[in-house]
Amino acid sequence: xxxxTVIVAGVDPWLLLFIVPMVAVSMIFGKKxxxxxxxxxxxxxxxxxxxxYAKRVFYEKKYAAELRLFGIGRxxxxxxxxxxxxxxxxxxxxxxxxxxxxxxxWIIYNVLSTILPYLYIAFVLNKGEVPTAAYIAMIPALSxxxxxxxxxxxxxxxxxxxxxxVSNLREFLSYEPKTDAGGLIKAEKLSDxxxxxxxxxxxxxxxxxxxxxxxxxxxxxxIAVVGHNGAGKTxxxxxxxxxxxxxxxxxxxxxxxxxxxxxKSLHRRFGTVFQDLQIFALPxxxxxxxxxxxxxxxxxxxxxxxxxxxxxxxxxxxENGIDTMVTKEFDEKGMGLSGGEAQKIAIARVFAxxxxxxxxxxxxxxxxxxxxxxxNRSMLENAExxxxxxxxxxxxxxxxxxxxxxxxxxxxxxxxxHSHLLEKGGTYAEMWNIQAEKYCTAVxx
Length: 445
Description:
The chain is of the alpha/beta class. The protein is built from 15 helices and 10 strands. Helix 14 packs across helix 15.
């Protein structure tokens, strides 16, 4: 481009003016095309997710029973077809516009880059005052300059278009959690938890999920959090771990506000089992450590953690031990898991992590009562010097806690030991009596 510009300018600088409208055309039409493609992508996002979800349901094993027993598959197929039909129609509308814009762009561009310069050169040569050979040589030089300049402009416009597609990602990657102005500190060792006048609403909610919450948990203390669905139990533990930031009050760990800690170092101090736990299509050892074991010592840690989590009998039956692939997603010899076995693996992660604070959100909901009792006993024995926060709807798993906290409508309604709350005769006692009655009825039936 530079060489062609020098040559053309040396013969007749006026020829360079024909480049300006070509650059303008490339920018205007290129920007319009980018806007249309971006609009198409954004408008198809929701339907693309719906169609993708419906398709995924049909090949994931966990949905197989319901699909075969009930007629839900027809509804999903209908959603799938509707989503793709709507995406097809939107695509058709955008393509119609592009079918007008793109040919129009090239017609205008060719007129500007070829016909007008040729007419100008013919006009100049007709006057007979300039050397013919120099102007004839300018025709390919001007053509090269025009197309190269157009390519450069197209690339610039394309970069702007592509950046629009990843704007959400860039915003997410540049997000910084709210921190104290004094800077971040590394979480070396955590002990006590102190929650004072804490409140938190989800965006768009009519009322806060939690409000005016005050809790103190000492090192080695076992706390159970109970309450009806939607009371804010899971939100509470996510706030304690620093995954959310309270909008009111404070949460302090070892005397420091959670926002003062470096997020990664803070999260490493917790051992957590969520009710919606995930198991990955990786070897068993990787699922426990959440990474590849580095040496024999870490392999022994995996085995020990699995046995503490009552997974020993299953482990002994595996031909490849902790190297067995979990799920058959990528390996036909992979291991299928029941819900209870998956929970045991998730609990083994806690033992392997050796955390300061243990958070258990419905850790044994898929276990039978005997397995649940053994697992709870093992967890309490192995978490002797750790603060433990246990969430469970089964009150039989919470009665041995040092303290039970009942959340109701986002705040603490009752707090005390199991026997104290039964004597009080409030909501906890009512929940306990209902569960005990149902359990006894089932046993004697």
